[in-house]
Write a structure and sequence with these properties.
Chain B: Pfam families: WD40 (PF00400). Chain B: One of its GO terms (molecular function) is structural molecule activity. Chain B: It is found in: Chromosome, Centromere, Kinetochore; Lysosome membrane; Nucleus, Nuclear pore complex. The complex is a heterodimer of chains A (595) and B (437). Chain A has 595 residues and is mainly α. Chain A is 64% helix and 4% strand. Chain A is built from 29 helices and 4 strands. Chain B starts with 21 loop residues before the first strand and ends in a 61-residue tail after the last helix. Classes of the chains: A mainly alpha (595), B mainly beta (437).
Chain lengths: 595, 437
C-alpha cells in the first residue's frame, strides 16, 4: 500500500500541550474539545475549563456559497434524470451543457463574491477561480472530448476566459488620450496575439500605424499576416489535412518575413512576428504576459502544433511546464492538477482536487458528471461507481450539518444506491425538530421514503415534547401518527384525569374527529366514546346516551378506576323517562362490582 | 503516451484525507475542576458537561450558535466521570456516574415561564442507582428500540442493566441484569444495530493492566430464550488495559465494527457466523468472527477515548500525546489519520472560576500542517497569503453572562410527586446472571 502522500492537518487548540489530555465529543457538524486528564481520581485540575468548538466544512456556512449549493443542486437533480437510453451523441450534448451550467453557477457565485470584496472572501474567490479553471479544462478534455482541430480552439477559449486581465488593460489603454502612446499599449497588443485574438490585435495596431506613416507598409504586412492566419473551422467542409496544409503555408510565409528582416526596423513588430512563428525563446521572454505555464502551452500549440491530438497533449504540457517554471520552483497543487488533466488521468485530478480544495462540492459534482459520461468505468475500475457515491455521501453529509441546506442533501442521498438510504436515516433523525412545521417537513421526507422507524421516532419525540409541555391534543395526534398505542393510552388517561379534575374536556375538535384512529388503544376508544356520551347527553338524547354508557361498561373498556365517575354521570339519567334502561344499567354495574 | 487506459494505482486510493478544521468558538465552561466528559444531546442543540467538581452543567445552543449554560448543579459527592443523554423519545433525560459509587438519572422539568425567560432550566434527580460497591466508571443508555434502559459498569467488574418500565415515571428503575465480568470495568458500548437479525449486544472493556488476565474486551449478547446476557466473545488479542470502546453505527451491514482505546487505537470487525446460529436453536450466543481492520499507535502511548461520528465515516481518538486524532476510511475501507487537534500550549485562563469577560477571540485560524496546502499559499489561485488568525471575525465566541451560570452547591429541588397516573411499578428485582463463559 502506497504511503499517504499528505500529512494530516493539525488544528491548534488553545489548551495545554503537554502532560494534559484533550477530551472531545462529536457533534452533528463539529467536535467539542477540552482539556482534561484521564484516569486521575486525585488529580486536581486548574480552573481553566474551556470547551472549544471545532468545525470543519467552513464553506457550508458561507452565505454566498449557499447559492452555489442551491443552484448546483438543481443541476445535479437534472443530471440524474437523463435517460440511459438516449443516443450517445445527444447525451454528450446534454452533458456538455450541464457542465456549462455548473460552471456558470460558479461564475455567478464568484462575481457575487467579488462585489462583496471583503478581504475574508479573497480565499473563497481564489478557490472558486481555481475550481472553474479546472472544471473548464475537464469539460474540454473529458466531457466534450474535442478531437484534433477543435481541441485547440477549445483550449484557446479556456485560456481567454481565465485571462481576462487583457481586456481590462485594453480598456484602460483605449480610454487614455493617446492609446498608441500608452505605456501598456504593446503589452496589450502582444497579449492579444498570445491569445490568438488577431481581430483585436489588428484594431490596436491600426492606431499605431496612423501615428507612424513612414512605417505604413510594415504595419500593412503585419496586418496581412495576422488576417491570413488560418483557424480550423469545425463546422466547415475543410478536412484537418487541408487545414494543416494551409496553416503550414502561412507559417512558411511568416518565417520568410522573419528571415528577410521585414520587421527589423520595428522591435515590437519583430517580436510579434517571432511569436507568430512560434519562437520558444521569444514566448518565454513574455512570461509575465503569459503568467501561467498553461497559457504558454496553449500559445505554443497555437503557433506550432494547431492540430495537436488529445493523446499528444500531455507531452507538450509536461515540457511547457518544465520550460516555464523555474527549475527551482516546485509545481503547486493547481499545476499538478492541470497537468494530470492534460495527461487524461481523471482519478489523479479528482484525488488532487479533493486534497487541495478542502471542499467536497467540486469533486462530488465533477465526479458525478464524469461518471454519467461513463468516463470512470472506461478506466476499468470496478469501484468506479463507488468513488462517485463516496464523494457524494461526503458532500451531502456536510450539507446535513447546516440548518437549511440539509434539505438539498436528501436528493444527493437518494441518488446513492448503496449507502444513501442508510446515511439519510442516520442524518435525518438528527435534524433538530425546532417547530411543528419543521417536524412535519422532516416527517414528509421520511414518509416518502418509507422510513417507518424514523417516522415513528419523530412522532414519538414530538408527542413526548408536547406532553411535557402539557399540550395534550398535540401529544395525542403525534402519538396517533406514531401508532404508539402505549403512549396514546397514557395521554387518554391524562385527558380523563383532566376531566375528573375540571369537569370539561380540552381539545374537543381533535377528540370528536378521530374516526378510526381511536381504535389505536382501548383507553383512547373509551375516551372518544365517553366524550360521545357527553355529547349525546348535552343534546338530550338520553336513551342513546344511556345505551352507550352501558356498552362502555359491559364491553369492559372503561377503566375500573373510572367506574365511580361513570356512575356519577349516570345519576342524572335516573330523572329521565328512560329509567328502565338506567335501572338495568345500575343492576349490571352492581353485578360487576360483585365480581 | 496517453494514460487513458492505465490501471489505477494505489495513489488514487487516498481521497480527501485532509480535514481542515478551525476553532469556531471557545466556551468558558467554568467548572472548578477537571472536566471529565462532554456530551451532545441527540440533535446537537444541547450539551452536558461533568467534572471533578461534582457538578453537571447543561448548555443550550441559541439560534445564532452561541452556548448558554441553563443549569448547573451538584450531582454527586465525588468526581463525575461521565454524563450521557437519553434519546429524546424519552424526554429530556440525563444519566451521570461517579466516583461516589453511584449513577443517577436526571430529568428536566418544564419550568415556569419565569425561568425560561431567565434562560434557566430545572433538572431533578429521578433516581440514584446504588448497587455498585465501587466507582461507577461508565454509564450508557441502551439503543432506543430496547426501551428506556440504562447500563452501568464499575470498577468491581460488574455490568448492570436497569430498565424504566414506565417512561413517564423515571423514579422507578429495576435492575434487570447483573453481569460479572471478573475484571475491573472501565467502559461499555451498545451495538446500535436495530436489525432483527442482531440480538441486543454490548461490549465491555477492562482497564486491568495485568496482561496475564487475557482479553480485556468482552462481548455479551442477549438470548431470547434464557432472557439473559451471555458472553459471545472475548477479544483475546487485546491484553492491555482498555479505556474506551465504541460500536460504530451499523449502516445496514451484516457485521459490526468496534473501536477500542487501549495502548493503541484498534478497529475490529465482528462478523456473526450465520450458519451456526441456525443450528443452535436456543442456547449458545452468536459466534463472532473477529477481524482486525486497523491498528494505530500514533498516540505513542495510552489511548483514552474513541468515538464515531454519526455515519461512522470518522473515528476520533484521544491519547497520551495530548492530541485528538481523526481517522478516516476511504472507499476501499483503508484507514488513515486525516486530522489532528492539538493543544498549542497556550491555554485560555479564566480567573477565579469566573466566566472570563473575555472579548478576545480565541484562535480561529485555519491551521494547516506542512502539507499540500502550505505549498499553495503562494499559489496564483489557491489561497493567497491569508491574514493571520482572524481576530474579531464572525467566529467570535460568546461567553454566557455570569448571571446565567448558577452555582448550586446544594442538591437540587427534591423530585416532585411522581406523576400521578402511574399505578403500579415493578419491584426492584436484582437478577444476578450466570455469565456465559
Amino acid at each position: 500500500m502506497e504511503e499517504l502522500d499528505v500529512e494530516p492537518a493539525i488544528t491548534n487548540i488553545p489548551a495545554a500541550s503537554d502532560g494534559k489530555h484533550l477530551g472531545f465529543a462529536w457533534g452533528p457538524g463539529d467536535i467539542l474539545a477540552y482539556e482534561t486528564l484521564y484516569m486521575a481520581p486525585g488529580a486536581k485540575g486548574s480552573g481553566c475549563s474551556f470547551i472549544h468548538e471545532v468545525r470543519k466544512d467552513e464553506d457550508i456556512y458561507s452565505p454566498i456559497l449557499r447559492k452555489l449549493f442551491n443552484e448546483s443542486h438543481h443541476i445535479f437533480v437534472g443530471l440524474q434524470t437523463i435517460r440511459e437510453d438516449l443516443p450517445s451523441k445527444n447525451k454528450k450534448t446534454q452533458f456538455v451543457s450541464i457542465s456549462k451550467n455548473y460552471r456558470s453557477v460558479i461564475r455567478a457565485c464568484m462575481e457575487e463574491l467579488q462585489q462583496v470584496a471583503a478581504s475574508v472572501l479573497v480565499l473563497q474567490v481564489s478557490i472558486l477561480l481555481a475550481i472553474e479553471l479546472i472544471w473548464n479544462l475537464c469539460e474540454v478534455l473529458f466531457i466534450d472530448a474535442a478531437p484534433a482541430g477543435p481541441l485547440l480552439l477549445h483550449l484557446l477559449d479556456w485560456v481567454r476566459l481565465h485571462k481576462g486581465d487583457v481586456d481590462e488593460k485594453a480598456r484602460e489603454v483605449l480610454q487614455s488620450e493617446s492609446p498608441a502612446e500608452h505605456h501598456d499599449y504593446w503589452d496589450v497588443v502582444v497579449s492579444y496575439v498570445l491569445q490568438g485574438r488577431f481581430e483585436e490585435a489588428r484594431q490596436m495596431l491600426v492606431k499605431q500605424a496612423t501615428l507612424q506613416p513612414a512605417a505604413r507598409n510594415m504595419y500593412k504586412l503585419m496586418d496581412t499576416l495576422l488576417s491570413k492566419m488560418p483557424f480550423y473551422n469545425p463546422g466547415g467542409t475543410q478536412t484537418l489535412t487541408e487545414f494543416d496544409v494551409k496553416w503550414r503555408h502561412w507559417h512558411e510565409e511568416v518565417d520568410r518575413c522573419l528571415q528577410d528582416n521585414s520587421f527589423a526596423s520595428n522591435q515590437h513588430l519583430e517580436i510579434i512576428c517571432k511569436i507568430l512563428v512560434g519562437d520558444e525563446d521569444t514566448l518565454l521572454e513574455h512570461k509575465e504576459l503569459l503568467s501561467t505555464w498553461y497559457h504558454f502551452l496553449v500559445t505554443r500549440l497555437l503557433f506550432c502544433h494547431p492540430t495537436v491530438k488529445p493523446t499528444e497533449l500531455h507531452y507538450y504540457a509536461q515540457s511547457c511546464m518544465t520550460m516555464f517554471l523555474d527549475l527551482r520552483s516546485v509545481p503547486e497543487p493547481l499545476d499538478s492538477i492541470l497537468l494530470a488533466a492534460f495527461e487524461f488521468d481523471i482519478h489523479q485530478v479528482i484525488k488532487d482536487c479533493s486534497i487541495a480544495l478542502n471542499n467536497w462540492w467540486f469533486v462530488a459534482h465533477l465526479t458525478d458528471l464524469l461518471d454519467h459520461c461513463k468516463l470512470l468505468q472506461s478506466h476499468n475500475l470496478h469501484f468506479g461507481s463507488n468513488l462517485r457515491e463516496f464523494l457524494l455521501l461526503e458532500y451531502a453529509s456536510g450539507l446535513f450539518t447546516h440548518h437549511s441546506l440539509w434539505q438539498l442533501a436528501v436528493d444527493y442521498f437518494d441518488n446513492c444506491p448503496e449507502f444513501g438510504h442508510v446515511y439519510l436515516e442516520l442524518q435525518i433523525e438528527r435534524v433538530p425538530l425546532d417547530t411543528e412545521r419543521k417536524a412535519l417537513k422532516v416527517l414528509r421526507i421520511c414518509e416518502q421514503r418509507q422510513m417507518s422507524e424514523q417516522v415513528r421516532s419523530i412522532c414519538k419525540i414530538m408527542a413526548m415534547r408536547a406532553l411535557r409541555n402539557n399540550r395534550l391534543g398535540s401529544a395525542l395526534s403525534w402519538s396517533i401518527r406514531a401508532k404508539d398505542a402505549a403512549f396514546a393510552t397514557l395521554i387518554s388517561e391524562r385527558f380523563l384525569q383532566d376531566y375528573c379534575a375540571r369537569g370539561t374536556f380540552s381539545d374537543l375538535d381533535l377528540i370528536d374527529n378521530l374516526g378510526p384512529a381511536m381504535l389505536l388503544s382501548d383507553r383512547l376508544t373509551f375516551l372518544v366514546k365517553y366524550r360521545e356520551f357527553h355529547k349525546l347527553y348535552e343534546e338530550n338524547r338520553f336513551s342513546e346516551a344511556a345505551k352507550l354508557l352501558l356498552s362502555l361498561i359491559t364491553a369492559k373498556i372503561a377503566p375500573r378506576s373510572f367506574w365511580m365517575t361513570l356512575l356519577t354521570d349516570a345519576l342524572p339519567l335516573l330523572e329521565q323517562k328512560e329509567c328502565n334502561v338506567v335501572v338495568y344499567l345500575l343492576l349490571e354495574l352492581g353485578d360487576m362490582e360483585k365480581i | 503516451m496517453c494514460r487513458t487506459d492505465r490501471v489505477p494505482t494505489a495513489g488514487i486510493l487516498w481521497l480527501a484525507l485532509v480535514v481542515i478544521m478551525f476553532v469556531a468558538r471557545s466556551i468558558a465552561a467554568d467548572h472548578k475542576d477537571l472536566i471529565h466528559d462532554v456530551s451532545y444531546d441527540f440533535h446537537g442543540r444541547r450539551m452536558a458537561t461533568c467534572s471533578s467538581d461534582q457538578s453537571v452543567k447543561v448548555w443550550d445552543r441559541s439560534e445564532n450558535g452561541e452556548w448558554h449554560c441553563t443549569a448547573s448543579w451538584k450531582t454527586h459527592s465525588g468526581s463525575v466521570w461521565r454524563v450521557t443523554w437519553a434519546h429524546p423519545e424519552f424526554g429530556q433525560v440525563l444519566a451521570s456516574c461517579s466516583f461516589d459509587r453511584t449513577a443517577a438519572v436526571w430529568e428536566e422539568i418544564v419550568g415556569e415561564s419565569n425561568d425560561k425567560q431567565r434562560g434557566l432550566s430545572h433538572w431533578i434527580k429521578r433516581t440514584t442507582l446504588v448497587d455498585s460497591r465501587t466507582s461507577v466508571t461508565d454509564v450508557k443508555f441502551a439503543p432506543k428500540h430496547m426501551g428506556l434502559m440504562l447500563t452501568t459498569c464499575s470498577a468491581d467488574g460488574v455490568v448492570r442493566i436497569y430498565e424504566a418500565p414506565d417512561v413517564m415515571n423515571l423514579s422507578q428503575w429495576s435492575l434487570q441484569h447483573e453481569i460479572s465480568c471478573k475484571l475491573s470495568c472501565s467502559c461499555i458500548s451498545w451495538n446500535p444495530s436495530s436489525s432483527r437479525a442482531h440480538p441486543p449486544m454490548f461490549a465491555v472493556g477492562s482497564d486491568d493492566s495485568n496482561v496475564t488476565y487475557g482479553g480485556k474486551v468482552q462481548i455479551y449478547e442477549y438470548n431470547e430464550n434464557t432472557r439473559k446476557y451471555a458472553k459471545a466473545e472475548t477479544l483475546m488479542t487485546v491484553t492491555d488495559a482498555v479505556h474506551d470502546i465504541a460500536f460504530a453505527p451499523n449502516l445496514g451491514r451484516s457485521f459490526h465494527v468496534l473501536a477500542i482505546a487501549t495502548k493503541d487505537v484498534r478497529i475490529f470487525k465482528l462478523v456473526p457466523m450465520r450458519s451456526d446460529r441456525k443450528e443452535s436453536t436456543s442456547t449458545g450466543p452468536t459466534k463472532l468472527e473477529v477481524q482486525i481492520v486497523a491498528q494505530f499507535d500514533n498516540h505513542n502511548s495510552q489511548v483514552w477515548r474513541v468515538s464515531w461520528n454519526i455515519t461512522s465515516t470518522l473515528l476520533a481518538s484521544s491519547g497520551d500525546d495530548g492530541c485528538v486524532r481523526l481517522w478516516k476510511a476511504n472507499y476501499m475501507d483503508n484507514w488513515k489519520c486525516t486530522g489532528i487537534l492539538k493543544g498549542d500550549g497556550s491555554p485560555l485562563t479564566s480567573s477565579s472560576g469566573q466566566p472570563t469577560a473575555m472579548s478576545t477571540i480565541v484562535g480561529s485560524s485555519v491551521q494547516t500542517s506542512q502539507n499540500a496546502l502550505n505549498g499553495m499559499s503562494a499559489g496564483r489561485y489557491f489561497f493567497p497569503p491569508l491574514d493571520p488568525p482572524r481576530a474579531g471575525t464572525r467566529y467570535g465566541h460568546l461567553l454566557p453572562p455570569s448571571s446565567l451560570i448558577e452555582h448550586c452547591d446544594a442538591e437540587p429541588i427534591q423530585p416532585q410527586q411522581a406523576l400521578p397516573y402511574r399505578l403500579s411499578s415493578r419491584a426492584l428485582l436484582p437478577l444476578p446472571e450466570a455469565e456465559g463463559q
